[in-house]
Amino acid sequence: MRKTGLHSSRIALATLLLLALAPGASASTLTETASKWGLIGSWSQDCSLAPDRDRGTILIYAIARGGRLMFRRDFGGEKDDNEVVGAKVTADGMLNLRVYFPSLKQLREYGLMMQPDGTLRSMYNRDRKGQYTIKDGKFTANGNPTPSQHKCS
Fold first, then answer.
1. Do the domain assignments include residue 21?
2. Within 10 A of 28 (CB to CB), how many other CB atoms are there?
3. How many domains does the chain have?
């Protein structure tokens, strides 16, 4: 009985150590991927508008303390901070992100494509169960194409 308890304690300690080290180990890779792709900065449908829930929403991708990649949304009266936990560029140039939204208690995956004019568009957005809100560059609720986001200076 004692050996089993000691063994379990060692496994738990090793697991905690790995979890503690993992974010730091991957943070530089995430920030490098996002930086090289051109994501870091503020994006909006219309950078001249004050932040709001419509065309003035500002989406901010920033490198926070410890080198963590953060996704911040500014809706004017409401803001949130969300950590990007995965980033990968596919052969077609799509930046695929995994973002944890604490306010939603949800991990979402979405893909962004840089357009020839330097704007970006969301091509898909889904939850961990595979439920899409955006698919093939269109909102699933109404079939409208996702809007272009411009980089704000």
1. no
2. 12
3. 1
On whether residue 6 sits in a domain, the answer given is no
Q: Token pair for residue 45?
A: 């449908």
Distance CA(134)–CA(7), nearest Å, equals: 46
Residue 39 Rama label (left phi>0; alpha psi -120 to 50; beta): alpha
Question: How far apart (Å, rounded) are the C-alpha atoms in residues 52 and 32?
Answer: 30
Distance CA 62, CA 105 (A): 21
Q: Average pLDDT across each block of 10 residues of the chain; the chain has 153 residues. List them in order.
A: 54 46 57 96 95 89 94 93 96 98 94 98 97 98 98 92
> Is residue 112 one of the residues assigned to a domain?
yes
Which residues are within 8 A (CB) of 97 and not within 5 positions of it... i.e. 6 or more apart?
71, 84, 86, 87, 109, 110, 111, 112
- Kindly state whether residue 1 falls inside one of the protein's structural domains: no
Q: Which domain holds residue 63?
A: 32-152
pTM summary value: 0.79
